[in-house]
Amino acid sequence: MTERCFVMLKPGAINRRIVGEIITRLERKGLNLSAAKLMQITPELAKQHYAEHAKKSFFTELITYVTSAPVLAMVWEGDNCVSLMRKMIGATNPAEAAPGTIRGDFCIHTGLNIIHASDSAKNGERECSLFFKPEEIISWHDEYTDKWI
Is the pLDDT of residue 144 over 90? Predict the structure, then answer.
C-alpha cells in the first residue's frame, strides 16, 4: 500500500555532513523522495510537531536541539513506506538500534538523535502538512524501476 512518511534529518545529521549518505540509503531501498526543504524550524513549529511529548521531561531539550541549526524536512512515498522507514532508521534509543540501521550506525545519544520519521501513515500525513504545502509535494512513479524493487 502506497503511503507517505515525513522524515526530518535533525541538526546532528546536517552538522556532521551525512545527509547524502542517509538519503542514498533511502533511495536505494526504492522509496521516492517527493519533497525536501532545508529550513530553520521555529520553536512554535517544533512544539506543534512534537506536541505528543509536551509533558515529557525531555521536551524542552528536544525543542532546543531541533531549533539549534537547520534541518532537512522531507516527504518520502512508497509501498508500506512508514513501516520500511522505521525499520531502516532503527530504534529511537541508539543503544538498542541494530547495526546497519541509520541510528545504529550514526547515533550514540537519544537526545541528539539525527533523524525523525513518522510512526504511522496518519501521523505521516499530519507531519507532512505541518512542513509542506500540498503543491510542494510531488508524487511520482517510475514504472521501469518499480519492476525491479
Answer: no
Q: What tens digit of pLDDT does each residue of 69-92 get?
A: 999 999 999 999 999 999 999 999
Catalytic residue among 49, 53, 109, 116: 116
Which three-class secondary structure string do you get for the chain? Answer: CEEEEEEEECHHHHHCCCHHHHHHHHHHHCCEEEEEEEECCCHHHHHHHCHHHCCCCCHHHHHHHHCCCCEEEEEEEEECHHHHHHHHHCCCCCCCCCCCCHHHHHCCCHHHCCEEECCCHHHHHHHHHHHCCHHHCCCCCCHHHHCCC
In CATH, which superfamily holds the domain spanning 2-136? Nucleoside diphosphate kinase-like domain (3.30.70.141)
- Catalytic residue flag (residue 116): yes
